[in-house]
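Try this one yourself first.
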């Protein structure tokens, strides 16, 4: 398993799901929000915090 896959696996399930939908399936925050029935701002917040957490973990590993 690659470093990014391992980091994704370590995230909480909701965060991992939203990041996967956004970055791997190329869904917009609005599309994700509609599919989950949550506000778009909540999805945007999860994307921002998850991205920050992944970048921080990657930088610590260098």
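Now uncover the answer:
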């Amino acid at each position: 398993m690659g470093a990014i896959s391992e980091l994704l696996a370590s995230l909480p399930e909701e965060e991992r799901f939203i990041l996967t939908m956004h970055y791997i399936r190329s869904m917009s925050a609005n599309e994700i929000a509609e599919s989950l029935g949550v506000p778009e701002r909540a999805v945007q917040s999860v994307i921002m915090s998850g991205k920050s957490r992944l970048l921080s973990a990657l930088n610590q590993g260098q």
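Discussion: The radius of gyration is 12 Å. The chain has a mean pLDDT of 90.
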